[in-house]
Structures are given as structure tokens and as C-alpha cells.
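Progress note, project year one: complex with NAP.
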Amino acid sequence: MTGIDGKVVAITGAGSGIGEASALLLAARGAKLVLGARRSDRLEALGARIEANGGTAVWKTTDVRRRGDLADLVAYACGRYGALDVLVSNAGIGPISPFDELRVEDWDQMIDVNFRGVLHGIAAALPVFRKQSTGQFVNVVSTAGLRIVPNQAVYAATKNAVRTVSEGLRQEAGPDLRVTMISPGYVATEFADSVTSPTVKSQAPAVDFSVSPDDIARAVAFAIEQPSNVDVGDIVVRPTAQS
Ligand SMILES: NC(=O)c1ccc[n+]([C@@H]2O[C@H](COP(=O)([O-])OP(=O)(O)OC[C@H]3O[C@@H](n4cnc5c(N)ncnc54)[C@H](OP(=O)(O)O)[C@@H]3O)[C@@H](O)[C@H]2O)c1
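Model obtained:
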């Protein structure tokens, strides 16, 4: 299947930011959305908004740290729509901090959500994609993995773990499955809310040059809409002013 119209697209972390913007754009272009995240009120509101705009969406409360939740999300998509064409693994958190603060619980959370969460998505969707002989993984990584800077090393490591896994998966995927990485730079979302470090909170940039979640959603759509023999491997979208 080529294009976006009619594709079944599941998105994790769909209730806000990049996930929400991607869901709205893809639904407007005819995709059937399956929305996953922990805050069900957000998903319900987004689902209602998509339906009110004439689109199609269902939602399921999903914690990507739990393998079973991803299995349930994928099964729900297949049950409701008979297939899953794309899994956008977008859920992520960024409680970044200096190493000296030893915020080990934050490190663990980033590993669990940003890395294990993507693995759980692969475990859930890969058998479905194999059975269908078609499917696409879209994994949201980050420019933080391309330019390592202080305070962001653990976050960057989780994103680069996904980068490594995505490339390995692509090589194993064969001619039928596509694997895409989207690397956003600074995007205006609620992402910084997960920061717990007072040091990092006090370092908020004076000038906000971030791009909007819609700017990343267009990259997600671009990767999905290509013909099935065209696998967009890696898209980097950052603010022009980002160093
Ligand atoms: N904003 C940026 O500058 C930026 C830059 C590069 C990359 N990214 C990446 O972009 C992705 C989306 O982030 P965003 O900027 O759109 O921030 P966001 O608005 O905070 O969105 C993150 C989403 O992830 C969900 N989430 C968090 N933990 C989860 C869990 N355990 N299970 C399921 N869902 C979970 C959140 O929903 P719930 O809390 O309801 O679960 C939330 O909707 C992330 O992977 C992030 O690393 C962001």
C-alpha cells in the first residue's frame, strides 16, 4: 500500500506534542489512528477531535514500559481495523541532569521508556508485519544522539540505543518491512516537564528557537507516504538556529 490514506497507524505517546501532531496530520490524510499513552483523558479528547474533523481514531491506555501493553495496543489495532501498517514509537521522556546529581531513577526511567518501550513495540508489531508481509516502524529518536552535550548523555544514550536497534532491524527486516528514524531537534512540547534536576531547570534557554510539533509530523508523514519500495531511513529536523 502506498501513501497514507487507509493505512492503520498506531502511535505511542500520542496524547501530546509530536505524537498528537502526527496523529492529527495522518488522520487528516486518511489514516486510521490507534492512539496509545498513559493519560487516557488526553487520548479520549484527541480521538474525539479527530472524529469531529471527519477522521478515524481509537485509543487504548498504554504504558510502553510494559511489554503486554504494546501487545494489547497492536492486537487492538488488528482487531479494530484488520491490520497494522505503521507503528510510530514516539513515547519518550527527558529528565536530563548532570551525572554528579546521580539521578539514577531518572536514568532507569529513560532506559525503560525510551529504549525498552521501543523494543516492546518491535516485539509486538514485528510478528504482525511478518504475517502481513508489510509494515513500517517509525522510531522517534533525537538530535541529542547526534551531538552529545553535557547533562544529556543518558538521554542521548537511550536514543542512540534506538538508533542502533533501528539499523539492525532494518538490515534484518528484508525487502518487505520499512524502518524509519526521525531525529527532532528542539521542539515546543511538554517534553521539558519531565526534568527533575534544579540545575537543568535553571538553565532554560533565554531565547526560544524551537520548531513546532507540526514540523516533525510532516517528516513522519513523508516517511509513511513513500512507495512501499522506498524506505526513508533517517530524517533530521532541527531548528535552523540550533547549534
Ligand atoms: N521536544 C523535543 O525537543 C524533542 C527533541 C527530540 C526528540 N524528542 C522526542 O520526541 C518524542 C515525543 O516527545 P514530545 O516532544 O512530543 O514530548 P511530550 O509532549 O512530552 O510527549 C511525550 C509523550 O510520551 C508519552 N509517554 C511518556 N511516558 C510514557 C509511557 N511510559 N508509556 C506511554 N507513553 C508515555 C506521554 O504521554 P503520557 O504521559 O500520557 O503517557 C507524552 O504524550 C519523545 O520520544 C522525545 O524523546 C523530543
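The beta strands are 8-12, 32-37, 56-61, 86-89, 135-140, 177-184, 234-237.
The pocket of NAP is lined by residues 12-13, 15-19, 37-39, 42, 62-65, 90-94, 113, 140, 142, 184, 186-187, 189-191, 213 (CB under 6 Å).
No further modelling is planned for this target in the current period.
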